[in-house]
Please model this.
Amino acid sequence: MAETHIESLLKEQRIFPPSPEFSKHAHIHSLEVYDSITKRAAEDPEGYWADIAAELDWFEPWKKVLEWDSPFAKWFVGGKTNIAFNCIDRHLSSATKNKVAILWEGEPGDVRALSYQMLHYEVCRFANVLKSLGIEKGDRATIYMGMVPELAIAMLACARIGVTHNVVFGGFSAEALRDRINDSKSRVLITADGAYRRGAIVPLKKNADEALSGAPSIERVIVYKRTGEPVNMAPPRDLWWHDQVAKMAGVCPAERLEAEHPVFMLYTSGTTGKPKGVVHATGGYMTNVYITTKWVFDLKDEDTFWCSADVGWVTGHSYIVYGPLLNGATSVMYEGAPNYPEPDRFWSIIEKFKVNIFYTAPTAIRSFIKWGDLWPAKHDLSSLRLLGTVGEPINPEAWMWYHKNIGRDRCPIVDTWWQTETGAIMISPIPGALPTKPGSATRPLPGVVVDVVDRQGKSVGTNQGGFLVIKRPWPSMLRTIYGDPERYKKQYWSEIPGMYFTGDGARCDEDGYLWIMGRIDDVINVSGHRIGTMEVESSLVSHPTVAEAAVVGRPDELKGQGIVAFVTLAAGHQAAPALKEELKGHVAKTIGGFAKPDEIRFTDALPKTRSGKIMRRLLRDLASGQATVGDTTTLEDFSVLTKLREEEE
Ligand code: WT7
Model:
């Protein structure tokens, strides 16, 4: 792992205490309050979580807070609730009914504001559409859309009637979509004709048509008209969203769901095999997402909250849709690219909507830095009071830039660590209470028990690198991998016995602050998106010219990590520059553009151990231009390494 990274972070000495003005009005306004909540959560975790859950609405109370049959957890057992009811109906008996729930801006500049009451109407109508098609509680629905309010409406409609949604990011290719539909056995696909992105149109329905040629579980396709481009509609399977909702009533009772009812699944990349369908459960997810949104972002009734992620990733699920709505907040949603038509689109949205809390990714911040200070400087960003980041470690210099140029030295920054699997933020400053250090996600939230350990699960000392683990179950933890409980056990709970293994390396400093060092498994983090090396490798070997492929990450100034693929060709094929481009295109086609390798290197052989395992560590060194320092004694054929080095020159 990147020793140099640890080095640089060790030198980081700056500390930013919360300002008295900020703390004065914060939900958790001092270290004392924070410590007492943390203490309470440690002494009585079940009582702690139960009190939070009780802030939300339940149709029937739970009988047991936690049933822990390691590693399988059930939270709020016997309780009945509905997350869509809690996101919407809960707010309809107060003035919040007329508050803006979703404040949306399309890339072309069109704006829509949906109040909680309007959201209720739209969600009910769409839930009725699903019901009219015979889609019911226990079914799965795949959603493949761009960033339009109807994406949130579709999710909430599913949740309202107990249909488990499976959102597939609109940047995924037809093949990736097909795999995710098939693995989830979805009966319905909800999509759109297209989506606007950087002035062009993403042909969602066309991709969907391609995916559907091999997706027999899909009975119906509902198509939202966003761009008006002509698309192919296949009756009776394909239906227009607007035709269907027009026939429906705006009332639909929320199903009384078991707390453990699977609210959604979301595919994410792992070390081995195909992407995993991470399953989340209604009651626990709702509780954890609700409280983290409130405390980490210090969310108040008057705030306008903007998380700039895509709803196709877990960040958008938890902090564009569910978290803000559970809190009755106004959530901003933007359809397009950050640099369209100019690199100041985000700042103009913040100025226009008077956004108070802004949550984005380090990779985006590095792009802003590259585009130049002038773009944010052109805008009045004085409405901002809190900033956040997520997705990858933020380098202290990017943190400082964000603090100065966006926060204007006024706004606390919350560096939030979590994963698709954790459902909600796990490690983060509480902004009114904890001093921050640039580059550190600081401490675990109350009720979250993490540690940095060695292979045997023994805590390593202060400032020693090790594996980041979570030692107690938490309400929003994934329940299983869809259809594969064995893989769930093996992947997360066997690596280090009895603990949840995150896949990240970390170090804990003398103040108990955590410094995340990134993935230690074969997962690459490109612009905050997790890509399994295996997935890119299988894509490459599915091309007729490729015999074998090994994929590694290398540091990339903008994207955090870039992808380098070492490829050996099948007999009779020539290494040619055109083939490199073809292979890159092939990966984009089979997975999605964001997984396209930055570089392809042809080689005669790959370095392997005597047991035949590819030594990715050596390839990583090569790809990042470092001299190999590590142990090479297990290398089966030394000449391979020498050759690879020569090929580089
Ligand atoms: C991985 C999870 C859930 C947010 C979006 C990514 C990395 C996430 C941080 C952070 C350092 C971070 C980790 C983690 N990561 N946040 N604040 N500091 N690293 O979700 O695709 O499930 O990826 O993102 O490596 O394991 P994801």
